Amino acid sequence: MDLTTVSGLTEAVQAGNRRALARVISHIENNTELAMPLLTALYPRSGKAHVIGVTGAPGTGKSTLVNALAGVYRRNDLTVGVIAIDPTSPFSGGALLGDRVRMRDLAGDPGVFIRSMATRGSLGGLAQATADVIMVLDAAGFDRIIIETVGVGQSEVEIASAAYTTVVVEAPGLGDEVQAIKAGVLEIADIFAVNKADRDGADRTVMALKMMLNLGVPEKFQVMHHGRMLPVNLPKAENLPQGWTPPVIKTVAVSGEGADTLFEAIENHRLYLEQSGGRILRDRLRAATELRMILRDYLLEDLLARTEPATLEALVEAVARRELDPYTAVRQLVSENNG
Amino acid sequence: MDRKARVLVAKPGLDGHDRGAKIIARALRDSGYEVIYTGIRQTPDMIAEAALQEDVDVVGLSILSGAHMALVPRVIEKLKELGMGDVVVLVGGIIPDEDVQALKDMGVAGVFGPGTLTPEIVETIEKALGRELA
What we know:
The structure holds 2 protein chains of 2 kinds. Chain A is an alpha/beta fold.
């Protein structure tokens, strides 16, 4: 198969060719000229996988837990694609992607495909590239896709919106329950894993989370999952899936303890979403978010391409010297280019 | 294309001395590469498969055990089997002078011993990838 053409790559990806899959992901990450035709060709083939987001503060043991969890999926004869995201250095533009170190049990298994991604620091771009790579793994036929992210900041919420089930990993001794509220994890978590549960203080962490959940659950669905208001036609309020209380599960990822329970909780949540119509709802929310993000990028690029660099420069200068406010500057730019 | 290359840093074989590999991984990150670090005790199969999944441009092997003449050709062979024959392979560690040429004859683009400075490695990578240094 010709791995330099869109049709060759698309066919090979669907035939399970791992080299082709890796190449396609690179095209998308690097936004080459093949990226868009590939996405167009593969999109109709996607939509079958259950996407699981795993997030949490550095050092909570996310990678090790993903390793254990993927192992359980494999024992249940389900294939797993893993996307492990680590930050790009803002200084050098380089990145050290080290999640594979903890995932060595998965090496050599043709039912597992692991790809490390750097955030590459582009605003909003991470979420989009991640969503696209999820779609590619989905089209390649993986049953479950696990995305592992570093749990800090707004991008987490965006990535959580790409997942059907979000697992927030906590560990004992990382701070009191106020930290959990501040970090906003209550809103995005479908399941909590208290990892390193063999350590002192695990029960206290479990208790604190459960207490916060009791306060937070009733309004959960309205605030979760997008981090921005979306003017989409949602199903009527009475159809909103209610009644999912995030379970809090103790795990010891290094020994695999609790991984089976976590697997069951994720699969329960998957069934819950399917039966309650939540999956359809999430698909629509995601489509709405995705369309808006792509539209924003597209319009921005389109407008900038049609704007004389000198015009833009003059406006930037005027705003910097406070002769013009940035909002008026933007309106000028838009109206000039629509004339 | 200003895209930074992706580099896999791996330690094949059974010695567990990974400080050198970690320092190189860090130095390459600071030079702007996306470095995928796989850790110690990797088999040639594991390294080649990781290189494939990560679609890397460069594979850096750190070997301090003396087993380089056995391990390096097996990694290269595996990479070729997977259609990754065009990946740039570098070797770092304790490599006797008389083995350096033999490794290069197998297709290794650079062999680096203790005390190598990062710019030298960067230059080798960029040259092997056919790119001009800025």
